[in-house]
């Protein structure tokens, strides 16, 4: 089990990893060629290997405030039929690792999906006696209203598969609250609209006792996009808006004390955004 934990005032954020791997991100960021990445020295050793291959992670982040526990994004999940072979029919120890970290599934108050892509909703459900059941039965699942309506009407087969096994079962169970992109979950945790990667994408702002952290979601997939904010992901629904969002967010948080916690950043996963010439870097 590979974990990280950070404290923001009275709030803790704990990382529980489903998959961490080197290579495989090129299809997401096709402009991130190895020879270019080798010219970005601060990516090493954490975020790229000696051959310029990107390191990445799929993990959940558990926010614990004085009065609630929030799981942000639920990875890929076990037993799911997926077209991407490394993600198909996974059998990981994610739930056991979650429990070992101190967060058994029946202790979770909220599940927040920054968006509804396949690698952010998987553990919303689990297979029980051949049926998809809510993994977190005592939680309210928070999903963006615009995001939910967009994907519910999307007819592409792979999307329909994800919706049918990982989203609609919790909706049909009456556990979903559809929220706006600036929703405030509690005193310490609120959403920030960061659209472009998907129509209702959000990031998560944590504020407590004068300290602040931002969970990115997928407005950025890999720290190399700090050096090259113009690089949009192949899976961005609106690449130009995604670029604008990155520039806006980087400008807002560069050279501030806000801790940036990357939703797909490999270990050590979090750091501070610093201006670096005309671009940015992550100090860890």
Give descriptors for this structure.
single chain; 284 residues; alpha+beta; seven-stranded mixed beta sheet; 6 helices; 16 strands
Q: How would you describe what is shown here?
A:
This protein is an alpha+beta fold and 284 residues long. The chain has helices spanning 34-37, 94-100, 145-152, 157-172, 224-227, 239-253; strands spanning 3-8, 11-22, 55-64, 69-72, 110-112, 125-128, 131-134, 140-144, 176-179, 184-186, 189-193, 202-208, 211-215, 259-261, 270-276, 279-283. It has a 7-stranded mixed sheet. The chain has a 7-stranded mixed sheet with strand order 10-11-12-13-14-15-16. A hairpin with a 2-residue loop joins strand 10 (184-186) and strand 11. The model has no long low-confidence stretch (mean pLDDT 97).
Outline:
The protein is an alpha+beta fold. It has helices at residues 34-37, 94-100, 145-152, 157-172, 224-227, 239-253; strands at 3-8, 11-22, 55-64, 69-72, 110-112, 125-128, 131-134, 140-144, 176-179, 184-186, 189-193, 202-208, 211-215, 259-261, 270-276, 279-283. The strands form 3 sheets. A 7-stranded mixed beta sheet has the order 1-2-3-4-5-8-9.
Mean pLDDT: 97
Q: Main sheet?
A: 7 strands, mixed
Radius of gyration equals 18 Å
Strand count:
16
Overall 3D geometry? globular
H/E element sequence: EEHEEHEEEEHHEEEEEHHEEE
The parts where pLDDT drops under 50 for at least 5 residues are none
Distance between the termini: 21 Å
Percent of sequence in beta strands: 25-35%
Q: Which strand order does the major sheet show?
A: 1-2-3-4-5-8-9
Helix content: 10-25%
Discrete helix count: 6
Give the class from helix and strand content and strand pairing: alpha+beta
